[in-house]
Design brief:
This protein is of the alpha/beta class and 481 residues long. It folds into 2 domains: 158 residues, Aspartate Aminotransferase, domain 1, CATH 3.90.1150.10; 246 residues, Type I PLP-dependent aspartate aminotransferase-like (Major domain) (Aspartate Aminotransferase, domain 2, 3-Layer(aba) Sandwich). It is 44% helix and 12% strand. It has 18 helices and 14 strands. The protein has a 7-stranded mixed beta sheet with strand order 2-8-7-6-5-3-4, with helices on both faces. Strands 10-14-13 form a 3-stranded antiparallel beta sheet. Strands 1-12 form a two-stranded parallel sheet. Helix 8 links the parallel strand 3 and strand 4. The longest helix is centred in the last third of the chain and has 27 residues. The radius of gyration is 23 Å and the shape is globular. It binds pyridoxal-5'-phosphate. Homodimer.
C-alpha cells in the first residue's frame, strides 16, 4: 500500500523544515505544567493582553458598536458610549460594504487605507499613496505575502538578521528559499554593521545564491535595538548598490524606551536621501495592531506599504490577496483607529492619552527593571532594551552545564530554559530559536509581565540562575562571550 497523501512521509518537505521556536519545546512543556496546575508566567510571546494589559477603551468602544450596530439605534446608546465613538462607528460602518460581516476589498477598505496613508504622511513628512498600502491579517501575513512574491526557489537568498524573529526563517523555509544570515553585534548593543552585510552577501553569492532581499527589524526582535538614521542610510545604500528589496519590519515603532534614538522609518530615510535612491530602492514596510500601546494581537490586523514597486507587480500582489477574498474586517477598523486615534479636543482624547501613555511609560520602566535584573545575575549579561518588547540576555554556561545538556540530549540553552521553567514557572524561548553565534547562549523573555509582579519574577530568576551556576560551575571557564 503506498503512503497516503497526508501521511508524514508524503507531505511537503518544506513544511517539516520550518521551525517556530516561540511555540516550540519550551512552550509545549509550559502548557503541560500549566495543565498539571503549576503557575506559568508566559514570557515567550509578545502578547500583551495575555499578560494583563488592558485594551484601550476608545478602539474597543468603536469596534463594539460596529459589531453590534443595533446598539446605535438604542435610545440609551449615548449613556454607554461617548459621542465621538458613536460618530466614528457610524462612519466606519458607512464605508464597509455591509458591516463587519461582509468581505471587504481584498486590499482592505479604501477609507482605512487612506487613514493609513495619512498617518504615514504625518509621521514621515512625505506623501503616501493608499493604492500602495494593503491591509492584512496581521503583519505576519503581510511578510508571508511579500516573501511569497519574491522567492522563486532554493537559489533565491533573503538576508535576515541573526538573531531574528522566526517568522522569517520559518516562512523562507516554507517557501523553499534560502536564508542568508547577517549577524548583529552584541557587544555594540546589537548594532548592524555594513562590513558584516558585505561579508554575508559575498559568501552567499560565492555559494551561487541570487540574493534578492534584506530584512531589517526595527526596533529589533529579539534584540531590542533601535536603528539610527545613519545606520538606515547605510542599509538603503547597501540595498541600492546590491540591488536588493528592503523589507522593513516596523511593528514595534511605538515601543521605544530611550530618547537618543527615536524611531525613524525606512521610508522617511529613503525619501530624505533623495534621488536616485528614493526613486529606485524597492522597499516594503510592515506595521501591526498587535504591538505598541494597542497590543491587540488577537485581532490580527496589519498593513504593508510598497515603495518603488512597479504597477504590474502591485497588481499581481492584489491578485494573490484576492485568493483569500478579504483581510479580517474588524481588524481593519482597529488599524484605522490605531493610525487615526482621538485628537486633542475630542471627547475621548484625555482618556485615550492617559491610557496609551500609561502603558508605554510602564513598559519603559519594565524594560529597565528587566535589564538591570538580568545584569545583577551571575554569568548573565544583557543589553538594554531600547525598544520592542523583549530582553535577550546572554547566559555564560559553565562547561559542566554544557556536558549535562549534552547528556540530556538538549541544546545547552534549551536545557537551561527547561530547568528555569521547571524551577520558577517562567516560560522563555532559548536563544537557539532565533539564531546566535556558535557557542554563545541566550534566552528571550518579553518585558510584558505586570509591573508590580516584575521584581518578584526577577528575584525568582536570579535565585534559579545563581543556584544553577553554583551547581555547574567548577571554575574551568565558560562558554565564550
Ligand atoms: C518582528 C515581528 N514582526 C511581525 C510580527 C507579527 O505581528 P502580527 O501579530 O501583526 O502578525 C511580530 C510578532 O511578534 C514580530 O515580533
Amino acid at each position: 500500500m503506498p503512503p497516503k497523501p497526508l501521511d508524514y512521509e508524503s507531505i511537503n518537505e518544506n513544511v517539516k523544515k520550518a521551525q517556530y521556536a516561540v511555540r516550540g519545546e519550551l512552550y509545549l512543556r509550559a502548557t503541560e505544567l500549566q495543565k498539571e496546575g503549576k503557575k506559568i508566567i508566559f514570557t515567550n510571546v509578545g502578547n500583551p493582553h495575555a499578560l494583563g494589559q488592558k485594551p484601550l477603551t476608545f478602539p474597543r468602544q468603536v469596534v463594539a458598536l460596529c459589531q453590534a450596530p443595533f446598539l446605535l439605534d438604542d435610545p440609551n446608546v449615548g449613556l454607554l458610549f461617548p459621542a465621538d465613538a458613536i460618530a466614528r462607528a457610524k462612519q466606519y460602518l458607512s464605508i464597509t460594504s455591509g458591516g463587519l460581516g461582509a468581505y471587504s476589498d481584498s486590499r482592505g477598505i479604501p477609507g482605512v487605507r487612506k487613514e493609513v496613508a495619512e498617518f504615514i504622511q504625518r509621521r514621515d513628512g512625505y506623501p503616501s499613496d493608499p493604492e500602495l498600502i494593503y491591509l492584512t491579517d496581521g503583519a505576519s501575513k503581510a511578510v508571508m505575502q511579500t516573501l511569497n512574491t519574491i522567492i522563486k526557489g532554493p537559489g533565491d537568498g533573503i538576508m535576515v538578521p541573526v538573531p531574528q524573529y522566526p517568522l522569517y526563517s520559518a516562512t523562507i523555509a516554507l517557501l523553499g528559499g534560502t536564508l542568508v544570515p547577517y549577524y548583529l553585534e552584541e557587544t555594540a548593543n546589537w548594532g548592524l554593521d555594513t562590513n558584516e552585510l558585505r561579508k554575508s552577501i559575498s559568501e552567499a553569492r560565492y555559494k551561487g545564491l541570487h540574493v534578492k532581499a534584506m530584512v531589517i527589524i526595527n526596533p529589533g526582535n529579539p534584540t531590542g535595538q533601535c536603528l539610527s538614521a545613519e545606520n538606515l542610510r547605510e542599509v538603503l545604500q547597501f540595498c541600492y548598490d546590491e540591488n536588493l528589496v528592503l523589507l522593513g519590519d516596523e511593528v514595534y515603532q511605538t515601543n521605544i524606551y530611550q530618547d537618543e534614538r527615536p524611531f525613524i522609518s525606512s521610508k522617511k530615510v529613503l525619501m530624505d536621501i533623495g534621488p536616485p535612491l528614493s526613486k529606485e530602492v524597492q522597499l516594503v514596510s510592515f506595521h501591526s495592531v498587535s504591538k505598541g500601546y494597542l497590543g491587540e494581537c488577537g485581532q490580527r490586523g496589519g498593513y504593508f506599504e510598497m515603495t518603488n514597486i512597479p504597477p504590474e507587480t502591485v497588481d499581481e500582489i492584489y491578485k494573490v490577496a484576492s485568493i483569500s477574498l478579504s483581510p479580517n474586517v474588524p481588524a481593519q477598523i482597529f488599524m484605522g483607529l490605531m493610525v487615526n486615534p482621538p485628537k486633542p479636543g475630542d471627547i475621548s482624547f484625555d482618556q485615550f492619552a492617559r491610557e496609551s501613555k500609561g502603558i508605554l511609560e510602564s513598559l519603559r520602566r519594565r524594560a529597565r527593571i528587566m535589564t538591570d535584573g538580568f545584569n545583577s545575575c551571575r554569568n548573565v549579561v544583557c543589553n538594554f532594551t531600547e525598544g520592542a518588547m523583549y530582553s535577550f540576555p546572554q547566559v555564560r554556561l559553565p562547561p559542566k552545564a554544557l556536558e549535562a545538556a549534552k547528556q540530556a540530549g538538549k541544546v545547552a540553552d534549551v536545557f537551561y530554559c527547561l530547568k528555569l521553567l521547571e524551577a520558577t514557572g517562567i516560560s522563555t524561548v532559548p536563544g537557539s530559536g532565533f539564531g546566535q553565534k556558535e557557542g554563545v547562549f541566550h534566552l528571550r523573555t518579553t518585558i510584558l509581565p505586570a509591573e508590580e509582579e516584575m521584581p518578584a519574577i526577577m528575584d525568582s530568576f536570579k535565585k534559579f540562575n545563581d543556584e544553577f551556576m553554583e551547581q555547574y560551575e567548577d571554575h574551568r571557564g565558560y562558554s565564550r562571550l
